[in-house]
């Protein structure tokens, strides 16, 4: 196979070749690095290229295979790592100029797990400043552009990861998510992602000087952005391997017990007073039809309130951020991020002191209500956003901008507060005046049943197609 074709393979397709030796790890890595060199200057998705170490790693994998060593589950698969996670010898900058010299002493658990599985790290992907925007731009590295066009934000905070994987820079892209930072970039680019539930993927940064707040610990998770849903099923078993450095990790298998069929899916168009755009409505209909065609039993029903859980959860998170991060944002942040946080605090008035404690106590009530509901309906199909994805810097346009970017993304951050898994998968390619634009939907699953969400995403994708193919046509046409 020619190098110029290898980068087009998803991780599953690539693994079928690297395991047999039809494609070497070095060939796969070289193809990804060549693609990076070709398209990254226009995207700024990868902000640190690790070509030399990547090729050395690939050569070592090839030699080990030649010597009879077994191949790992991600043998030779090129992957990018987000710059807010520790990778030994690299700067963990979090998109902040003042942190540009914070060099990681060792790998975070998620990086170690990917290495153990045989993945090859080819570069570090961009994030938003403090990893706390649904758009990706910062004074240290600049803006990441959406491969669909500069009129659409690349999403955030894992915007570099989403743009990279969808443009063909690596078959897998690491990211993380405290309120939507995996799913925003997926929705922006038509990638597929999974926000795992609390404790599924071990997390910890050896470079950190203090423990994160309790809500940050319980809402933030590590995950992947991929071009295909089947790649999540391939890669997540390696991602969830245990690490004693994370005391919240839950040592559960990836595949849960089979459910008696047909699996029931609750379907909700509830918008809590917001307008549902016709393209989002059409994407929901397409996903609904795909699931029914795949044998799922889809029922339109009323779910427990996601709005109340989301609003209280994000106000509580803002209270924790203001208390624990407020000084760092003021001292190390740009004027832009300080202004955005001021607007966040207006839109989501921070809960502090006893109000914060009460909100954290209420979290168990919301979780209980959803656990009971999900016992009857193991999956819930929802919008991810109520409108097609927004333009770059929309969140800098005062309260109206933050309302569109975050206020209407209630189905995103509510799931973080609940600690539930949720997949995000494209279900429609909308045709707009400025060009085609993907529309993603969300699939919430029972606690600990990420595998069910991914299986449903695969069912949708198998019937509606992958967004990378029309994207690459669009990118080629734009040359």
From TrEMBL:
Taxonomic superkingdom: Bacteria
Residues in Amidase domain copies: 27-451
Taxonomic lineage: Bacteria, Pseudomonadati, Pseudomonadota, Alphaproteobacteria, Rhodobacterales
Matches recorded under SUPFAM superfamilies: Amidase signature (AS) enzymes
InterPro entries named among the record's database cross-references: Amidase, Amidase_dom, AS_sf
Gene Ontology molecular functions: catalytic activity
Pfam families in the cross-refs: Amidase
Family indicated by similarity: Belongs to the amidase family.
Protein name (database record): Amidase
